[in-house]
Amino acid sequence: MNIIDDAIIQKYLDEAVKVSRANDAGEVAKYIPELSLQDPRQTAAIIRTTNNKIYSSGDSLHDDFTLQSSAKLVVLIGLLEEFGSEEVYKWVMVEPSGHDFNSVARLDQFGPYPSNPMLNAGAITLCSKIPGNDEDKMHWLDVWIEKLFNEKARLNTKVFASERRTGDRNRALAYLLRSNNMLEGDVERILEIYFTLCSFEMSPYQAAHLPYLLANKGKNTSGEQIISENTVKQSISIMATCGLYNESGKHLVNTGMPAKSSVSGYIFAVVPGIAGIVTFSPRVNAKGSSVRGSIILRELSNKLNWHFALN
Amino acid sequence: MNIIDDAIIQKYLDEAVKVSRANDAGEVAKYIPELSLQDPRQTAAIIRTTNNKIYSSGDSLHDDFTLQSSAKLVVLIGLLEEFGSEEVYKWVMVEPSGHDFNSVARLDQFGPYPSNPMLNAGAITLCSKIPGNDEDKMHWLDVWIEKLFNEKARLNTKVFASERRTGDRNRALAYLLRSNNMLEGDVERILEIYFTLCSFEMSPYQAAHLPYLLANKGKNTSGEQIISENTVKQSISIMATCGLYNESGKHLVNTGMPAKSSVSGYIFAVVPGIAGIVTFSPRVNAKGSSVRGSIILRELSNKLNWHFALN
Amino acid sequence: MNIIDDAIIQKYLDEAVKVSRANDAGEVAKYIPELSLQDPRQTAAIIRTTNNKIYSSGDSLHDDFTLQSSAKLVVLIGLLEEFGSEEVYKWVMVEPSGHDFNSVARLDQFGPYPSNPMLNAGAITLCSKIPGNDEDKMHWLDVWIEKLFNEKARLNTKVFASERRTGDRNRALAYLLRSNNMLEGDVERILEIYFTLCSFEMSPYQAAHLPYLLANKGKNTSGEQIISENTVKQSISIMATCGLYNESGKHLVNTGMPAKSSVSGYIFAVVPGIAGIVTFSPRVNAKGSSVRGSIILRELSNKLNWHFALN
Amino acid sequence: MNIIDDAIIQKYLDEAVKVSRANDAGEVAKYIPELSLQDPRQTAAIIRTTNNKIYSSGDSLHDDFTLQSSAKLVVLIGLLEEFGSEEVYKWVMVEPSGHDFNSVARLDQFGPYPSNPMLNAGAITLCSKIPGNDEDKMHWLDVWIEKLFNEKARLNTKVFASERRTGDRNRALAYLLRSNNMLEGDVERILEIYFTLCSFEMSPYQAAHLPYLLANKGKNTSGEQIISENTVKQSISIMATCGLYNESGKHLVNTGMPAKSSVSGYIFAVVPGIAGIVTFSPRVNAKGSSVRGSIILRELSNKLNWHFALN
User: Fold this and answer.
1) CATH of domain D68-200
2) Catalytic pick from B20, B57, B69, B128?
3) How far apart are CA C245 and CA D237, in angstroms?
4) Domain D6-67+202-310 classified CATH 3.40.710.10?
5) Phi/psi of residue D63, each to 5°?
6) Which end of chain C is more exposed for a tag (fewer CB within 10 A), N or C?
C-alpha cells in the first residue's frame, strides 16, 4: 500500500463525495432533539496523509459539528496513556457486542462488564475513571481534546442540554452498571461528564487531526510522539472490531479502514501508516452510522487500494 | 513494519514458544471425543514470510492434526473466488456475534441469517452452497484444499466419525436454518460435507501455506495469483472481526494479527504483507482458542512489532 | 360458583358463539401446509358439565380436526399417571417461558431443561419418555387417547405427513435437547411419535371428554376414577400458567379457566368442579391461539361467572 | 373443596410449620442491607377462613415485617378499583416473564411494556399512575393500605432508606421505561413512592386480612364489599401466573394457591372461596421466595386438599 500522488488522491476524493451525494438513504438522528436540526444535505470529507498533505472535498468543511460517539476515542486514548491498557481493560472488555450501541439487554445478560469502550456503557464507565473531582475531570477533557485535535475544546451547550434532557437510556445503563459495582459515584454527575464529552464540537477539517495521529503511529506533523505506539495499537484494534457497533464487520470488509462512527454524522477512519480520514454527513442508518460517510470510505478504499489487508 | 533479519525472527519465535510452554491453562477439547485424545503438551509454530523464508519452532511440526474451524476459511475463500463477495454476503452476514461459536440462541434471536461465516451456522450455510451433487462437493473440497495448502486433502476418518456422532448442536443449527429457508437440501448430507471439511488434516508445517497466501496478497511463492486481492481483503477482514469468535476483539488488541482459531488447537494468523503464521497447541480456553497459540502470537507481535495498526 | 340451570347455559353459549363470529381477526395457521386448508369460518363450542349435561353450539361439532398442541395434555397426563409427578419433573420444568411456543433461543439460553411440557421442546422430551420400542410407544398413545377421550385414536395421515415434512424447527429443538443430554435415542423416530401425537383427530364433541374429566376430578360419567386427583391438580395447574404459551397470563385474567390452545384451532378449557369446555375455530392469533375460541371462553366466564377465583 | 373442622385445620397448620422448620435452606435477602438483619429462624403462618375463623402457628405472629413485593398487590388492587382493568392493562401486561423479578434484559428485549405488575418494572409503572402530586400519592397509599389490611399504614424508615440507597437496579428499570415513554415524571420521585410502598410494615397476623379479602370475593368480615369481584378475579389470576416470578409455575403445581412472594419473607396466598393465608420466614431462595413459606403452603394444600383444581 503506497501513498499515491496528490492529483490522484484529490480526484478520487472528489469522485467519492460525488458518488455519496447520489444517496439519500438514512435520516438525521432524531433521538437527541438538537441533532435533528442538522442539514441532511451536508457532506464533507478530509484526508490527512502521513506525509503531511491535506485533501478535502464537499461543503461544510469548516462548520462545527458535535463529536458525539467519535469522542469516545478521546477518553479511551487519554486513559490508555495515563493508566496503561492492562488497567483500562479491568474496567471494560474489548469485544464487539453484536447488539445495538445502547443496548441495556446486552449489559444485563452478558455483563457486568461493558463489552467494549465504543458502546455507551463502556464510555460511561471510562468517564467515571477520569481522575479527580468534577472540575478536574472537565479540565482533563479539555487537555485531551486539545492534545488530540490540536484545537481548544468547545462545548455546544444546546446539544449538551438536549443530551442531558433525553439521556434516559444512558441513565439506565449507568444505574445498571452501578448496581453491579461497575461504577462508583453520583450517576448524574458522571453522565454530565459523558454528555460533555459527546457535545464537544469540531469542524471536519479540525477533526481530521485525531485519525491522522493514529495513522502516523502517534506522532504529530513535527514528529513529536503525542500518544504512544501501544495506545495507537489498542485504539485502532478496537476501532477495527467495535467502532461501528453491530456493523463493524461489514464496514471492515468494505473498507479495511478501522473507524469510529457517530450519530452526529462523523466517521473517523484510519489507514495505518498512510492517512487519517474524517467524513461528515448527518444522514445515519439504523445502526447509527453515516450513510454517505460509509460510501466515501468504501470508494476511497477501492480506488486507492487503501485496505489494511493489502498492506 | 518491516521484515527483520532471519536470526532475530528465529530467536523471537523460539522465545515465544518457550514462554507459551510455561502455561498449562486450558484443556484439550472434549466435546468431540476423538479430539480429546490429543497430547496436551504438543506445541508448534511456523512463520512463512512473504520473502520466502520459513521459520519453525517446537515439536510436532510435521504431525497431522485436523483443521476443524480453521478449515472454515477454505469454504469461505473458495466460494468468494467462485461467486464473488456480493453473492456470498447474500447467504451470510459478516458481523461479530458476541455469542459462542455454536450458539443456537444467537441464530434464533438475531437471525435468520448467520452472523458470520466463522460461526458454525455460517460455515454450514456456506457448505450447502458448494455447487453440484454430493460427489461434486467432495471434489470441490479436495480441489480447494490442495489450492490453498499446496497439499492433497487427507481426511481423518476417526475424527469425521466422531464429529458426526456427536454433532447434535450443529444439527440444531442446520434445522433451524432450514426452518427459516436459509438452507436447502438434506441436512444430514450437508452436515457430512461440513464434518468432512472440519476433519481434513494437515501438519502445522503444511498448514502455514494458507495464511502465507493471505499475507502475500493471494500469490504463491512463484508469484502466481492463487486467490484474488478482493478475496484476500474479505477473508482477512472477517478474520480480524470474527476469527476468534467472542474473543476476537481481545485477540486483535493483543496481537494485531487477523486470525482463525480452531478447537483442535490450530490458529492461523496473518501479518498482512509480512507473514503467515500457524501455531498449534491443543489446550484451548472456554472460547475454543488455543491458549499457547495466543501467547505465541502475542509475543511475536510485541517483539517483532508485527501489528497491523503499526503498518 | 354454581352450575346454573340448563336453559341459561345454552342461551349464553349460543350468544358467546354468536359474538365470536363477529370477529374475523387471526388467520388459519399456515406453517403446517395441510392445516392451512381449514375453513376459517368454522366455529364450534361444547360444554360438558360435571352433572352430566352436554351443551353445544355452532357448526362442525362432529367434524374431525387434528388435536395438535392440545394433545400435549395426553402425553403429560399419561406419564404423570404412570411415573408420578416427581419423576416427570426431572424431565421438564413447569414454568411459563415468556417466549414463543417453539422458541429455540429460550431453550438454548435458559435450558438445558425445557421450561414446561406445553412447549414443543417439553412435549418432545415427554414423547421420548414413553416406555418401550416404537410400536409400544404408538400403542401407548392409542391407549391413552382412548382412555382420555373415550374414543379410538384416529390418525390424520395427511397432516402427519405435512408436520413431518415441515417440522424443522422441532428438529432443531430435539437436536439441541439431545446435544445437552436431555433426550436419548433417534431424533427422527422420537419426532415421529410427536408428530403422530399432534395428528390425531377428534371432533369437538368427542374432544370435550378430556376437559370434562379434568373438571370432574378425574372421574368419568360413571364415577370411575380414570386419572388420579394428583394428575388432575398437576395438569390443570400447568394449563393455568403455561397452556396458552406467552398469553397464558392474559387468558387466565380474562377467563379464569385453565386451558390448552392449539394451532389447529382447538382450545380445551377447564372450570374446576363445574365443566369441561372445548372450542374450535381455526383462525389463530400470533401466539397460536384461536381468536374466536378465546372470545367464547371470555363470554362464558363473564356471563356464567365461571372464574376459578370466584369459586 | 370444603372448609374442614377447626381442630383439623389447626393440627395440619402446626404440622406444616413444624415440617418447614426442619429446612434451613435459603438465606435472608442481602441486597437490601437493612433486610439482611432479619432473624433467619422466624417462622409464622396464619390462616383466615371465609367462615371467619383465624388459625395461627409459629413465632413472630405479631412482629412487624416490611411488605416488600407483597405490597405490589396494594397498588395493583387500588388502581384496578379506581381505573378499571382495561385502563390498567394499557400500562402493564399480565404475562409471566420467565425472567428474574428485576430483569432489565427482559424489559429491554421484550418491552417496552413491563410484562406484569408483579415485576419491579410493572409495579414502578403502576406507582407512577397513582393520581395527584407526591403528597396525594402518599395519601393514596395510606388509604389503600388501611382499606386492604384494616390497619393504619406504618413506614419502616430504615428499610426505606436502605432501599433508596441501594435501588440502582430499580433506577435502571425506571429510566429504561421513561426512555421508551412508558413512564412520565421525575424518576427519583416515582421511585420514592415505590420504595415507600415496599417499606410499609405489618405483622403476619395483620397481613392476613388482604388474602382473606381476595378469598372472600372482596368482602370483609361484615360482608361489606371492599373490592369488586372483577378486581378479585384480576388479582388472583395475576397471582396465579406471575406471583412468584419465575417459579410461579412450580408453586401453582405444588400448592394450587395463587400467591405473592416477597424478599422480606412474606408469602400471601389465596384459596378461593375458602381462605387467605400468610406465611412469614425470611430465608428466601434464589428466586426471592421464602423457602419455609413454600413448604407450609405445599403441606396445607396436600393435607387439606386445598388446591384450586380440586374445587
Assistant:
1) 3.40.710.10
2) B69
3) 15
4) yes
5) -85, 155
6) N
CATH code: domain C68-201 is 3.40.710.10
Answer whether B250 sits within 8 Å of A95, measured CB to CB.
yes
**A261 residue type, one letter:** S
Question: How far apart are the C-alpha atoms of A225 and A254, rounded to whole Å?
Answer: 31
Pairing between strand D283-284 and D27-28? antiparallel
Contact of B78 with B210, CB cutoff 8 Å: no
Q: Is A194 labeled as catalytic in the residue annotation? A: yes
**In this structure, are residues C33 and C166 in contact, taking their beta carbons and an 8 Å threshold?**
yes
Tell me, yes or no, if C88 is annotated catalytic.
Answer: no
Whether C2 has a pLDDT exceeding 80, the answer reads no
ipTM here: 0.95
Is C259 in contact with C208 (CB distance < 8 Å)?
no
Catalytic residue among C12, C55, C245, C266: C245
Measured distance CA(A35)–CA(A41) in Å, rounded: 14
- D105 to chain A: which residues are within 8 Å by CB? 104-105, 108-109
**B10 to chain C, minimum CA–CA distance in Å?**
44
Domain boundaries along the sequence of chain A:
6-65+202-310, 68-201
Here the cell at position D22 is 426442619
Cell numbers 429457508 correspond to: B181
The class of domain B6-67+202-306 in CATH terms is alpha beta
B290 closest CA partner among B10, B13, B27: B27
Cβ C178–B187 below 8 Å, yes or no?
no
Q: Mind telling me how many Å the CA of D73 is from chain C's nearest CA?
A: 15
Is A68-201 in the same CATH topology as A6-65+202-310?
yes
Q: Chain C partners of D117 at a C-beta cutoff of 8 Å? A: none
pTM: 0.95
HSE of A167 in the Cβ direction (CA atoms, 13 Å)?
A: 28
Residuewise pLDDT in 10s, chain A (311 residues): 555 678 899 999 999 999 999 999 999 998 788 888 889 999 999 999 999 999 999 999 999 999 999 999 999 999 999 999 999 999 999 999 999 989 999 999 999 999 999 999 999 999 999 999 999 999 999 999 999 999 999 999 999 999 999 999 999 999 999 999 999 999 999 999 999 999 999 999 999 999 999 999 999 999 999 999 999 999 999 999 999 999 999 999 999 999 999 999 999 999 999 999 999 999 999 999 999 999 999 999 999 999 999 97
